[in-house]
Amino acid sequence: MSSKNKIKGTAFETAVVNYINNNSCLNVERRALSGMNDKGDIIGVPDTAVECKNVKDWSQRLGSFINEAEEEAANAFVNIGVVVIKKRNAPIDDAYVVQSLRQWVETIERDLNG
Questions:
Q1: Across the strands, what pairs with 97?
Q2: Beta carbons of 83 and 99 less than 8 angstroms apart
Q3: pLDDT at 1
Q4: Sign of CA dihedral 63, 26, 76, 14
Q5: In this structure, is the dihedral angle defined by the CA atoms of residues 51, 105, 101 and 73, taken in order, positive or negative?
């Protein structure tokens, strides 16, 4: 049973994987669903759980998306949780990557201090 939303979500996840693989040195892939202890949608970005969202109206749900990504990071035993959100009527490279300010600063500090 595949719903229209599930098909849209899978297509977006695949597009994000293809974009990352074609435009970076990373080799990422879609992660199999893990139910209650979800670890994100994409595996292969170091120390990061990546959650993808292809929803029409995400502005009111952004906080819950960030919480979900951070919970998935904890489930995956990584430090960073990000959400990739599809921008309506735009190519994949215009999608948004969002994380909390706290995690962004932690990432910068880790990068600067090794």
A1: 84
A2: yes
A3: 46
A4: positive
A5: positive
